[in-house]
Predict the structure.
Amino acid sequence: MKSFTSRLAIFSAFSALLSASELVAKTIQSKPTSITISSAAVGGSGIAGTVDSSLLNRHRTGGNAIYVYAGTVTPNDRGSATSPLAVVPVTQDLCIFSYSVTGLAAGTYTLALTQQADQDAATTDDAISFISQATVTYSNAASLMSYSFPTKGRVLKVGAGQTYAKLSQAVQNSLNGDVIEISSGDYIDDFATVSNSVTLRGVGVTRPHIKRVAGNISNGKGILVTTGKVTVENVEISGAKVADENGAAIRIENDITICNAYIHDSEDGVLGGGVNTLIEYSEFSQNGLTDCGYNHNIYISDGDVFVLKHSYIHDAVCGTDTGHNVKTRAKNNYILYNRIANEATGTASDQINVPQGGLTYIVGNVIRESSKSHSNRIILYYDGGDGAAHASRDLYLINNTIISDNGEAYLTPGGGTTVRAYNNLLWGSPKTISAANQSNNIFSTDTTVFVNKANYDYHLSATATTPINAGMNISTITGFTLPVDFEYVHPTNKKARILNGIIDVGAHER
Ligand SMILES: [Ca+2]
Ligand SMILES: [Ca+2]
Ligand SMILES: [Ca+2]
Ligand SMILES: [Ca+2]
């Protein structure tokens, strides 16, 4: 995927900027709680750096923050006897996390990372714990000093010439908190059950490719089976196949985070679910089977919260049987700013299938149904015949662009649901959408409304007028509290949504 090269370029530039801190990272292993470093002028002012993703709670992003204190202190929360000078968020760009604190005078500071900033009341002494900390001496207030928080676990290296030739060997020798770095290259029939809570991270010029080639996977489940709380970053996985025809690239049996993965040509892309499932900046394609009936690109079969963001989920394979691009049974679903589509080859039945309901946000997505789909709908929300109803059956369908190229209904909600559909651009033959609460949706059959419909580019064209500034103020939608603050950028990225007046209808602002 060509975008990966540019991502590495960004990462390399950032790494170069932070090279001083990498030296620090090596020394911190033996002295993990307090180190002293001097500033190096690299432009700008303040202290900035990366935070290794293994230190973060990716399922509660509002909790990850750096607390900054004057002097050498034992960190405590806001409202305690040792209140911080400043609290700055940990921010994310693709799978890289960073922070920046500015406005500091020269001096010595303690920096501490917590995952619980969102539980810290400003005026009371709360039980907030800190994951990692460092004491830094900031000697020149006119310079930018680099300090990065390294992983607290070990780094196990996999690849040719590394400690472990096979991923499965490193997994077997891992402990909770470790980061397993997988070098670029092919890992053939290298299957692993990951029972510890570790980070599997691809490193190198291209993503390492873990693939099944010969026979069925003997564990009967998948290429990776994650029973610990696992993070998977920068990997390609393909070819999963097991005896019962439900082989997944990743079989999910606990909390999981998947970032910048390319998962394809397996019987299932991912299957399962922990309490929390997060998939972001990833591509899934060509997963499924033509004759099975329960194979999908993404199938979240359980859990409390499923988040799918900034991803390209396309062309699942189901022939004339039943299989979907995205299926979820989680109790809360956040499907935000993705491209979910049957395009050149896909035969997915539904683009999004939510059979048991649950509080579900489908916001800012580009969704396309092709003539190759045989089901009579694009999105299914609550099917009384496929699993018990979740307590909430509230669906918010907000600011999506949905293309029906085969005359299928955009949405089929079941009985007892509350569907709110606003600001959607609905292209194709149906001129209605099944939602009791709806407004500011636009139905179109005009191909010139898009930049290049034939090539799946559904940005609004220069001649499009109807959707421009035609949306409803989202703050007036009953019960809807999310921002609509991003757009999907192809492939597997995002950008800020700049309203340019009133919000436009559909997934993209012109
Ligand atoms: Ca507090
Ligand atoms: Ca406290
Ligand atoms: Ca369909
Ligand atoms: Ca606008």
Observations:
- The longest strand covers residues 130-138.
- The pocket of calcium ion (ligand 2) is lined by residues 76-77, 80, 125-128 (CB under 6 Å).
- The radius of gyration is 24 Å.
- The mean pLDDT is 91.
